[in-house]
Amino acid sequence: MTSLDLALASPEELVAAARDGDVVLRDSGEGLDPLTTAVWLAGRTSGTKIGVSFEASSDAMREKTLDSLETLTGGRVVVDADPAAARALRRDGIDYDGVPVPALEPGDRSFRGRRSTYLRGGSPGLVLQPRTPSEVAAALEFARRHRHLPLGLRSGGHGISGRSTNDGGLVIDVSGMNTIEVLDPSARLVRVGPGATWKQVAVSLDKYDWALGSGDYGGVGVGGLATAGGIGLLSRAHGLTIDHLRAVELVLADGTPVRASATENPDLFWAMRGAGANFGVATAFEFEVDEVREVGWAKLVLVSADLEESLKQYGAVARNAPRDTTVFLVTGPPRQGQSVIQLYGMVDSDDPDVVISRLTPFASIGMLAQQQVVITRYADVMGEAADVGPEGQHGRGEPVARSAFVPVLTDAFARDAARLLRSGQVYYFQLRHMGGAITDVDPGEMAFSYRTPEMSVAAMGGDRQGLDSQFDRLAAHFDGLYLSFDTDLRPERVADAFPPPVLARLRSLKHRYDPTNLFRDNFNITPSTPFTPFATEENS
Ligand SMILES: Cc1cc2nc3c(=O)[nH]c(=O)nc-3n(C[C@H](O)[C@H](O)[C@H](O)COP(=O)(O)OP(=O)(O)OC[C@H]3O[C@@H](n4cnc5c(N)ncnc54)[C@H](O)[C@@H]3O)c2cc1C
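A: This is the predicted complex of the input protein with flavin-adenine dinucleotide.
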């Protein structure tokens, strides 16, 4: 890489150097403006990486400039801010000199890929990146010293509520803890780090003819999903992801590493399966996975002029489907009276006749417009998700979603759901087919206790008030909700997610394991007895 002093180099010299290889433009205060020069040079060359040392007068201007550079040059201009400019981006109230583990701060180049999540834009003051449980403990000690700031926990960055980022706060990002290993082949026992994605897990298990049902998108991270539930394409055949969990290792709020299983801290193990994010930072999961060979995988597109009728038919067909079959429905607002319905179906069978016979009734709930049905590997289905590249995730704004469980997809529900979609307040509506193996687990076995609904529904809208006003009109059809598909952090939603005795038990365990409520920023379960500090590190 050639270093060029902008006070000395002429435009011709710059182009000649950049044609020979990557260059860094050094701004010494004289000569050409480095940013203008970088874009000009990017236009005159191809492929060359252009590094820039740069200062800007305000945070807002700098951010805008970086975004523009990235867009205009397709990421070819790499800004390596000088230390003074980087320090200027620091946020108030953070002891940057006392950071105990590897971390990214706003002036770091790689920070841009870690500041936001898949769906939500963010601007944290510091992203701590521990690589071991003892580094997680150190990060938590740092977080306890910064109680005044929001605290996000991040694994795969796909949380729909987006609380794995924040504005000006701390994030503990365990994406680097992403190993996947087989512990015991005869018991199909595997150990997975929270930072792995479900796509990576599926690929690792595939060579053994094993699979672990997760969700419908392989880009989602293990940490967030395996602490909440995991309602996916294999759920009716094999149960929720957390039904396969045999042990979890985590670091508690006070920094203590613990292991929870049926025999070690069983009450914590109960809580971690459904409400995990309130109890600690999960650092490893042990799952007993399933034997899964090839599966039938279908993507059908149907058009319906009568959405209510199509939803009714979907409900009836889904109710009668054998448990090897899971079919999710996605639709949006009808246009000119026509609804486009997408069905995503998985049949746990490699027999084409079985697959076709299972899917045919679903294909008749509307007019079939497109179909793709294949016999393939579960890993290939998860592999359809795009990889998150080195530039990270770039969600923007605030996602707005609501979730609910539907005990029975009644005709009245179909009518009201169709009205919801016609309201224009929902741009994405999904019904997830439940039942089957999900119902095999006793509701008392873990914190995730809504075991018998026929469906889980998720709706995304443009604004909170508009979505709530329409979604709440369906309340009579609902019982419970899945937190992973909601973005409303108010206590009402937490109360919806857990039946009262379950919530009471969770609050009492929260008092035991996180009495100061350090983990409070994503669907907070408040400790049953409020914490009254006498002399703690926060107030002493
Ligand atoms: C495109 C897409 C498809 C999805 N499909 C499905 C699906 O089919 N089935 C399903 O069940 N869900 C699905 N989800 C929801 C998903 O399971 C949750 O959003 C999950 O929390 C994402 O996990 P993550 O690690 O990627 O997210 P992150 O954003 O990293 O984390 C989300 C939240 O999980 C908690 N958390 C994260 N890491 C840890 C940890 N190590 N220890 C303790 N708590 C932690 C925190 O509260 C955090 O805010 C989907 C989400 C998206 C965006």
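Residues 59-73 form the longest helix (15 residues). The chain has 16 helices and 22 strands.
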